[in-house]
Amino acid sequence: MNKILLFLLLSFSVFAQKSLNRFEKEIVAFEKQDSIAMPAKGMKLFIGSSSFRLWKNFDADMKGMNALNRGFGGSTLKEALYYFDRMVVKYQPSWVFMYEGDNDLTGGQSPEEIALQFEEFSARLAKQVPKAKLVFVSARPSLAREALKAKQQDLNQRIVDIAAKKKGHYVIDMHSPFYNADGTLMQDIFVADRLHLNEKGYVIFAKQIQNFIQKYAK
User: Fold this and answer.
1) Does 24 have pLDDT greater than 80?
2) Concatenated DSSP letters for 138-200?
3) Where are the domains of the chain?
4) 3-class SS shares of the chain: helix, strand, coil, % to 5
5) Residue 2 — pLDDT band, cuts 50, 70, 90?
6) Fewer CB within 10 Å, N or C, the chain?
7) How far apart are CA 94 and CA 91, in angstroms?
8) Which residues in the chain belong to E strands, given as ranges?
9) Distance CA 51, CA 195 (A)
């Protein structure tokens, strides 16, 4: 291998690591919390992007459900894989609830690519936390990303198809509940950025997950 090619490969590797490392401060903050009081093994682990991170009423909504929120930044599935050992294996959860995919699509990844990453996450979970069950919380709509609706639906269906073939895999529909009966997207469930949910939006968001847990994961 010539020196120029080696330099380019090393440079790309460093760039890729830095881009996946952008939320390192948040991960370190979680690790500091854990060093003070380590969560018990066997909890329901929530890992994903800002829809989990900004869930202000998580503790109240998940009261009595043995749940741990580890949403970070505006993360992607690649970043969930990057931090897999530190944010998943470490906790040895009984269930993993994942909200990723929305930011991935916005960043230019295709539904096919994201579905492959989901399969990689699934394979690593089966190997390193073999008793854990995996729940994909499907990509939800937003006013800011209405142009991505078809891709979100494509991704969600791909994950449904994958989960149907794997034991202990589930999908929570988080797309259709945010539409009115006439098929229009609700207008009053978002904060000013038209992307993130407000309190009313989180009532719907939480209810979907609560219903699933009551039915499948008590």
Assistant:
1) yes
2) PPPP-GGGGGGHHHHHHHHHHHHHHHHTSTTEEEE--SGGGB-TTSPBPSSSB-TTSSSB-HH
3) 26-216
4) 55, 15, 35
5) low
6) N
7) 9
8) 44-48, 67-71, 95-99, 133-137, 169-172
9) 10
pTM summary value: 0.91
Chain centroid, CA 144 distance in Å: 19
Q: Left if phi > 0, otherwise alpha if psi is -120 to 50, otherwise beta: which for 151? A: alpha
For the stretch 135-164, pLDDT in tens is 999 999 999 999 999 999 999 999 999 999
CB distance 149 to 102 below 8 Å: no
Tell me how far apart the alpha carbons of residues 217 and 95 are, in angstroms, rounded to a whole number: 8
Query: What six digits make up the tokens of 91?
Result: 């906790």
Tokens encoding 128: 């390193």
Q: How far does CA 187 lie from the centroid of its chain?
A: 24
Q: Looking at the domain 26-216, which fold is it?
A: Rossmann fold (3.40.50)
Whether the pLDDT of residue 5 is over 60: the answer is no
The encoded tokens of residue 186 equal 């609700």
Q: What are phi and psi of 93, to 5 degrees?
A: -75, 160
Read off the pLDDT of each residue in 108-114 and give the average, rounded to a whole number. Answer: 98
DSSP, collapsed to helix, strand or coil, labels residue 2 as coil
Confirm if 42 and 94 have CB atoms less than 8 A apart.
yes
Burial of 177 (0-12, 13-18, 19+ CB in 10 A): middle
pLDDT tens-digit readout, 182-191: 999 999 999 9
